[in-house]
Amino acid sequence: MQRFMLTIRSASLTGYDDLARHVGLDPARMLRKVGLRARDLVDPDAPISTAAVRELLENSAVAANVEDFGLRLAMRRRLSNLGPISAVMMEAPTAREALESLCRYTRLINASLLTRIEDHGDTVLIRENILVNDKNPVRQSIEMAVGVLYRSMKEILGPNWRPRSVCFEHRPPDSATCHKSFFGLAVDFNSSVNGIVCHARDLAAYRPASDSQMALYARRFLDQALSGVNDSATHTIRQVIVAMLPNGRCTADQVARHLGVDRRTLHRRLAAEDTSFSSLLQTVRGELASRQIRDSDRSLSELADLLGFSTSSALAFWFRKHFGMTVSKWREAQQ
C-alpha cells in the first residue's frame, strides 16, 4: 500500500527550543534523533513530518521525565500561531463559527489532527483525534492539541471563560498540578474522548468582530489552499472510521453513505491504493486498542464501546485473534 507522509506546519514547535533547554535537554540533539534540523523550524509555514513531531514530543517527555511536556509547549502558543486561520477565527461573529472554521481548515496546518464539534443538548464537545499509521503513543501530541485549542478558545471568548470540562483518554500523570493550573479546573482523565466540553450558550453568544477585510483575504487564501489538497482515499476513510467507531457499528455501507458514495465506489478507491475496508478497519481498531490499553485504565467493557464491539467478550475474542494473546497478557508485556 502506498504511504503518504502527513505534514504539519513547523509553527507547531514554536517554543520547543526554549522549553527543551528549560527542562535540561539539548534541542538540536533531540531534533536530529527524529530526522529534523533547527533550520527546518525557521519558516513557520514549512511542512514537516507529523510522525517526526509526534516522536520528538514523546522522546522529550521521556528524556526530561516531564509527563506534561506537550501541555507545557501548548502554554507557549497563541492563536496567531495558527497563521491565516487565526484571522478568519477572530472575525467570526460567534465562537461556534470560529470553531467551525478551525475544523474546516485544520488539515492545512496539521494533516494528522481531526477536530470535530458535537452537540449534546445544552453542551458542546470539541473532540480532538490524532490520526496515525502505527501503535506508538500520542499522549504528548494530544495534550498539545487540546492545550492549543483551549488557548485559542480563551482568546476568542475572553479571559473569564471556563469550559465545563477538559477530557483525555489516557491515564493521569503522577501530578496533574500543571493541568489544573492551565485549564483552571480538574481534568477528566481515562475519559471516553479527548477534547473540551463547554456550554452551548457560550459558543452561540455574539462577539465583536475584528478586521473583516483581512479575514476575507485570509479565507480566500485558505479556500484556495484547501482546493489543492489531494488526500488519499485511505487517509479520508481512516478519518471517518476514527469518528464513527465510538458511536457503535462502523460498516462499509455506513462509511460510504457518510462520504456520499456507494459501497462499490468506496471499495474500488481503496483497492486502487492496494488496501481494503476490512483491512483498514482492523488496522485502526488495532491502533486504538493498543493505545487505550497501554495509556489508560479503562475497563474492558468501556473499551468495547469505544472500539465498536457489542460486548466485552466480543472485544476479548477479537483482541486475542488480532494480537495473538489476551488483553491482560499484552498489557503486562508493555510494562
Automatic annotation (TrEMBL):
<dbReference type="Pfam" id="PF12833">
    <property type="entry name" value="HTH_18"/>
</dbReference>
<dbReference type="GO" id="GO:0003700">
    <property type="term" value="F:DNA-binding transcription factor activity"/>
</dbReference>
<dbReference type="InterPro" id="IPR032687">
    <property type="entry name" value="AraC-type_N"/>
</dbReference>
<keyword id="KW-0238">DNA-binding</keyword>
<protein>
    <submittedName>
        <fullName>AraC-like DNA-binding protein</fullName>
    </submittedName>
</protein>
<dbReference type="InterPro" id="IPR018060">
    <property type="entry name" value="HTH_AraC"/>
</dbReference>
<dbReference type="InterPro" id="IPR009057">
    <property type="entry name" value="Homeodomain-like_sf"/>
</dbReference>
<dbReference type="GO" id="GO:0005829">
    <property type="term" value="C:cytosol"/>
</dbReference>
<dbReference type="Pfam" id="PF12625">
    <property type="entry name" value="Arabinose_bd"/>
</dbReference>
<feature type="domain" description="HTH araC/xylS-type">
    <location>
        <begin position="235"/>
        <end position="333"/>
    </location>
</feature>
<keyword id="KW-0804">Transcription</keyword>
<keyword id="KW-0805">Transcription regulation</keyword>
<dbReference type="GO" id="GO:0000976">
    <property type="term" value="F:transcription cis-regulatory region binding"/>
</dbReference>
